[in-house]
Design a protein that fits this description.
By secondary structure, the chain is α/β, with parallel strands linked by helices. The protein has helices at about 40-45, 70-75, 90-95, 110-125, 140-155, 170-185, 200-205, 220-225, 230-235; strands spanning about 1-10, 15-25, 30-35, 55-60, 65, 75-80, 160, 190-195, 205-210, 215-220, 240-245, 250-254. The protein binds adenosine-5'-triphosphate. Keywords: ATP-binding, Nucleotide-binding, Transport.
Length: about 250
């Protein structure tokens, strides 16, 4: 579904990402990990066509993302940043309904089906009780849940998440990632997410892409990537690796 072919990006002659090659299959959850400044957010911006590669191209559903119109692309790709939704004084319901805009024609009002979709998503995301509350009165965790709900009504095939759990406590971090994982399994959604928390990345992603200094260092499962030597060489840290007692997935102890 997504093919990143020899993509590089430079700004003012400074290379930010270099020679990225990645093929992402439909229905997979891919975790982009790596130290600060590795180029993870830039890759997300390139995939969403927010930035243009200096070289190479990104094919989404067989067509270069740069050749898609903004509206068409928004019908297929939803993007969520760590800031989530801006805290405007609009209701939760209206904020979520805005996710339907890419599917509406010019001057076209929402149809019965659009409202039904919002109702379904309010239930799935457990936001029904908040429907009339103003966005700027919600907690950070609740607002991030609304951002996921808005992305859900957009009905994309690909969801891009840049550090969706940054400002959240552990309960809300798990809640958001579980929502995304359930959605992925339910609808065959493809997910690319930047995560700093390697333990969460190992638990929620099918595949990890480890980046450093603008390059992809390694692509693999958590078994391949969450390994002592790998993390020492990229993060310059000396973590202990243990196994999750329930899932047996490798986890890091600092
Ligand atoms: N528009 C820009 N102009 C100049 N430098 C940029 C620009 N955008 C990104 N960079 C630089 O490119 C590098 C990669 O940035 P990017 O935000 O993609 O990294 P990241 O892996 O997401 O980092 P972090 O984990 O800290 O968020 C950084 O050194 C950053 O300063």
């Amino acid at each position: 579904m997504l093919d990143i072919q020899n993509v590089s990006k430079s700004v003012d002659g400074k290379p930010i990402v270099q020679d990225i090659q990645l093929s992402i299959q439909k229905g997979k959850c891919i975790g982009l990990i790596g130290p600060n400044g590795a180029g993870k957010s830039t890759v997300v911006k390139l995939i969403s066509a927010l930035e243009k590669p200096s070289a190479g191209q990104i094919q989404f559903m067989g067509k270069d993302v740069q050749d898609w119109s903004v509206k068409k692309l928004a019908q297929h790709i939803a993007v969520l940043t760590q800031e989530g939704l801006a805290p405007y004084p609009i209701t939760v319901y209206d904020a979520i309904l805005m996710g339907r805009y890419p599917h509406l024609g010019f001057f076209q009002r929402e149809s019965k089906r659009d409202y039904e979709i919002v109702e379904e998503v309010l239930k799935i995301t457990d936001l029904t009780e908040f429907r009339d509350q103003l966005l700027d009165t919600l907690s950070g965790g609740e607002r991030q849940r609304v951002a996921i709900a808005k992305a859900m009504v957009q009905q994309p095939e690909l969801l891009l998440l840049d550090e969706p759990t940054t400002y959240l406590d552990i309960g809300h971090q798990l809640n958001i990632l579980k929502l995304v994982q359930d959605w992925q399994k339910r609808d065959g959604l493809t997910v690319v997410m930047v995560l700093h928390d390697l333990n969460l990345a190992a638990q929620f992603c099918d595949e990890l892409v480890l980046m450093d200094h603008g390059r992809v260092v390694r692509v693999g499962t958590s078994e391949d990537i969450i390994a002592k030597e790998m993390l020492e060489s990229v993060y310059h840290a000396n973590p202990e690796i243990i196994r999750h007692p329930k899932t047996n997935i490798p986890q890091i102890l600092l």
